[in-house]
Amino acid sequence: MLATELAKQASIDHLMFVDENSMEVVKGPKKTKSSFSFDRVFPPTSSQKEIFEDLAELVQSLIDGYNVCVFAYGQTGSGKTYTMEGGLGSEEKGMIPRSIEHIFTALEDSPIT
């Protein structure tokens, strides 16, 4: 979450991050729980670096010649653009700039054949 969002809302009572692959959504006056499983779930406390560490394996697969697709899904205003593009500081770089850096570093390190 952005700093301004964190200031407005100290916690997210309706989302519970069970583990790295699942989350629960609590909704309605009866507090109905719905459970969801994903390949990976990142809570709002995750850093851009932490998210890229998981994504770096896919970028390496791309370099190795495999087709790769990263799909950012979520509600409007949930941070998809920030996660993909990032902010101005080096720690805030998103997945796109980090992926490009990873690709160019791999190109520089590979021998020319």
UniProtKB/TrEMBL annotation:
Highest taxon of source: Eukaryota
GO terms, molecular function: ATP binding; microtubule binding; microtubule motor activity
Endpoints of the signal sequence: none
Pfam families, alphabetized: Kinesin
GO biological processes: microtubule-based movement
PROSITE patterns linked: KINESIN_MOTOR_2
Main location: cytoplasm
Domain named Kinesin motor: residues: 1-113
UniProt subcellular location: Cytoplasm, Cytoskeleton
SUPFAM superfamilies: P-loop containing nucleoside triphosphate hydrolases (SSF52540)
Binding site for ATP: G74, Q75, T76, G77, S78, G79, K80, T81
One GO term describing the cellular component: microtubule
Cited InterPro entries: Kinesin-like_fam (IPR027640), Kinesin_motor_dom (IPR001752), Kinesin_motor_dom_sf (IPR036961), P-loop_NTPase (IPR027417)
Keyword Calcium listed: no
Keywords of the record: ATP-binding, Cytoplasm, Cytoskeleton, Microtubule, Motor protein, Nucleotide-binding
Family in the record: Belongs to the TRAFAC class myosin-kinesin ATPase superfamily. Kinesin family.
PANTHER family: KINESIN-LIKE PROTEIN KLP-3, PROTEIN CLARET SEGREGATIONAL
UniProt protein name: Kinesin motor domain-containing protein
Organism: Ladona fulva
